[in-house]
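REVIEWER CHECKLIST
Item 1: Sequence provided? yes
Item 2: Single chain? yes
Item 3: Sequence as submitted:
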Amino acid sequence: MGELRDIPATHLDKYIEDQLLPDTHFRVQVNQAIDIISSFLKERCFQRAAAHSVRVSKVVKGGSSGKGTSLRGRSDADLVVFLSPLTSFQEQLQQRGEFVREIRRQLEACQREKKFDVVFEVQNPQWEKPRALSFLLRSPRIQEGVEFDVLPAFDVLGQLTSDYRPDPQIYVRLIQESQRLGRGGEFSTCFTELQQAFLKQRPTKVKSLVRLVKRWYQECKKELGKPLPPQYALELLTIYAWEKGSMDTEFITAQGFLTVLKLVLNYQQLCIYWTKYYTLEDPFIKRYVMAQLGKPRPVILDPADPTGNVAGGEPNSWPRLAQKARAWLSYPCFKKWDGSSVGSWDVQLRDNLCSVP
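Item 4: Structure as written out by the authors:
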């Protein structure tokens, strides 16, 4: 099968199935690697750190593996390790570097003692208080290496209820801490389970559309390099397109794909948020969210963390991606057999509370 841009619109579903969905063997291998590291973190890593009396309350699989949107051949995994000594956002910020170093020391010790039949290639952190430990895991049981990011975090959510809706006071604390620091999204790892649930609970075909958009994004990244908007922003844009334009479990994939690219083209007007996990009935949270929505476009608030505008960052990133999206509009993947456009869904660029800038 050829390049994505050359795939006829009617063949996109087959392209996703044949090229993008991880095959069972690969998925089993990645899950084995995740199990090895999760067991190490829970059972061995902090046994020697008695002075801290460190306990791992849970290890949560984040990233595309956790969301159920992995691409074939892309073997990377985020593991968020929630640690009992961390009792506030501030402590996470101050102590995470120490925990990253401890995890690294224990990994290297286990490797020296040959406790695992795996090999770790650990990357040196680029700053003094790293957010994550990044390493490559190789094993005789796993043909390809699996890239890991292990991120220590404060377990602010605890045991989640079945509706995944946390106590509003958790968001009040988060907002206050973000305001004190003067930067948002710093503690999004604490809300990994909600980010995960937000995508994972979607119909299978929606997750397939997310995979297709991710493949498009990666092709753009290969051609353009940095800066580009975060991939997570494109995932959320895809969910938004489907929620506002379709909501069907069966839809024409090419129309959904075209809708996302048209949203990218209109990035200067995007203002998107969700209140699935945080409530605007709390006046403090509402005031904060309204202020976030009043910021320069594009605004895409992380559904799990209203302090994070995932569309923010480098100002040149969206125009570069939009230029690429415009070029793609004429490609076969958006054309019917007679050469006319497949059409797109009718989706508003601003959500209800967003004022006209």
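Item 5: Key structural point noted by reviewer: The first strand starts at residue 56 and ends at 62.
Item 6: Recommendation: ____
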